[in-house]
Amino acid sequence: MTDGPARCILCEIREQSPEDLRAIVDSYIASLPAESRAEDALYEQRLALCRDCSHLHAGMCGVCGCFVQVRAIKAAMHCPKPYSRW
User: What's this model's pTM, rounded to 2 decimal places?
Assistant: First the structure.
């Protein structure tokens, strides 16, 4: 636990280099239990749909604000409503 006010996640992201953000996302994905992860083919299919979406901005979903790689790897997740592309 830290002292002081909580920091804004967008401020935290803004201060990270693209390489550091990639490492954070990769580390998080690697930490997920295998049983909660989507199969590789499904994960790639989801990412392909996200790549073609007009709401994708710098790896983040403009609808919900998530990192699409994190959302897509979780088996139980779905594309946010009302879009529901996957």
Answer: 0.79
